[in-house]
Amino acid sequence: MSEPDVRLHLISREERALSAEGRDQPILEVEDLTLDFAGVRALDGVSFSVEPGELFAVIGPNGAGKTSVFNCISGVYRPTRGRVRFDGRDVTGMRPYRIAALGVARTFQNVEVFPTMTVVENLLLGRYHHMRSGVLSGAAWWGRASAEEVRNRHRVEEIIDFLEIEHLRHHRVGALPIGLQKRVELGRALAMEPTLLLLDEPVAGMNQEETEDTVRFVIDVNEELGISIVLVEHDMGVVMEISNRVLVLDFGARIALGPPAEVARDPAVLAAYLGGALGHEPPVPGSVDAGARSVGS
Ligand SMILES: Nc1ncnc2c1ncn2[C@@H]1O[C@H](COP(=O)(O)OP(=O)(O)O)[C@@H](O)[C@H]1O
Ligand SMILES: [Mg+2]
């Protein structure tokens, strides 16, 4: 790759201008979101909106409803009540693949990669909706390379460079440590060229070094690629340092929304966390409790 800075080429200038500056409407609007499972109200009238270019965090104790918010935004669950608007368009109840094709990509709390496939192959799968022929069709792999295939492979290589995983290109993803598997999953999400990226506990299960790397990539994705991010975290440490605003959920309801410093002093937030999994320490910036993984949610 001969470009001086491949990062700028991941998303064209026009696309970035469209995604970040040229508009004043929120990239995401969630209104009165309510989700019932049999006997359980997972979400209870949650409203918030995310501005273009924002790094927006959603925090709360285990079971607070964070992943449920993502599942409603991305179409995995249809909310019992309420609306989700992406880029001004009502996407409530739309199929996940359609919402993804509109520009919403996500990563999962329990990393979801194709373990027997290589890094390159996993990222190419993220290009799926950019391809007219099937991503794993014989033509894509062995046949005469079409302009489309060349472009897809070029994009994937740019992302691989951006995420500094060049040396792992042809490694099977299942054999990589969890931190790198999650980076590959992030790469697959980026390969979709989203304007909104949903990250569900991106540092869960990571050691300190992996956590620091991940935080750096999340910031770069937001600042250099201009992609709006909603970041779900169980812990406030990472969130305090990098997010523009924080939504706090407890028992499916919104208990606070505002800049991190404000939210961290909010009595309702402190009460929720003191009664929750974090013990008796108030949230401290930079203290990432990487061991506190949510189980089974
Ligand atoms: N598929 C499901 N069926 C039944 N209950 C669920 C399901 N998914 C989530 N829940 C419940 O909804 C609540 C919120 O869960 P979740 O959104 O996963 O919380 P968080 O991500 O904040 O830990 C929890 O009480 C959880 O048990
Ligand atoms: Mg969760």
Explain what you see.
The protein has 297 residues and is of the alpha/beta class. The chain has a domain at 7-103 and 193-274: P-loop containing nucleotide triphosphate hydrolases (Rossmann fold, 3-Layer(aba) Sandwich), CATH 3.40.50.300. It has helices at residues 7-10, 13-21, 66-73, 96-102, 119-125, 138-141, 147-162, 178-191, 208-223, 236-242, 260-265, 267-274; strands at 28-37, 40-50, 55-59, 81-86, 89-90, 104-107, 196-200, 228-233, 245-250, 253-258. The chain has a six-stranded mixed sheet, sandwiched between helices. A four-stranded antiparallel sheet has the order 2-1-4-5, covered by helices on one side. Helix 5 (119-125) packs parallel to helix 8. The longest helix has 16 residues, at 147-162. 42% of the residues are buried. The site of magnesium ion (MG) has 5 residues, from helix 3. Magnesium ion binds at residues 66-67, 109, 294, 297.
What is shown here, in short?
This protein is 36% helix and 21% strand. It is of the alpha/beta class and 297 residues long. The longest helix is centred in the middle third of the chain and has 16 residues, at 147-162.
Kindly report the name of the CATH homologous superfamily of the domain at 7-103 and 193-274. P-loop containing nucleotide triphosphate hydrolases
What is the residue-mean pLDDT, rounded to a whole number? 84
N- to C-terminal separation?
A: 41 Å
- Please give the largest β-sheet: 6 strands, mixed
Helical stretch tally:
12
Bound molecule types: adenosine-5'-diphosphate, magnesium ion
Helix content, binned percent: 25-40%
Strand order of the largest sheet: 6-7-8-3-9-10
Quaternary assembly: single chain
Briefly, what CATH class of the domain at 7-103 and 193-274?
Alpha Beta
Sheet/helix structural class:
alpha/beta
- Enumerate the spans where pLDDT stays under 50 for 5 or more consecutive residues: 1-9, 277-297
Strand content: 15-25%
Rounded to the nearest angstrom, the radius of gyration is 19 Å
- The CATH architecture category of the domain at 7-103 and 193-274 equals 3-Layer(aba) Sandwich
CATH-assigned fold name of the domain at 7-103 and 193-274: Rossmann fold
Based on Cα principal axes, name the global outline. globular
Number of strands: 10
Order of helices and strands: HHEEEHEEHEHHHHEHEHEEHH
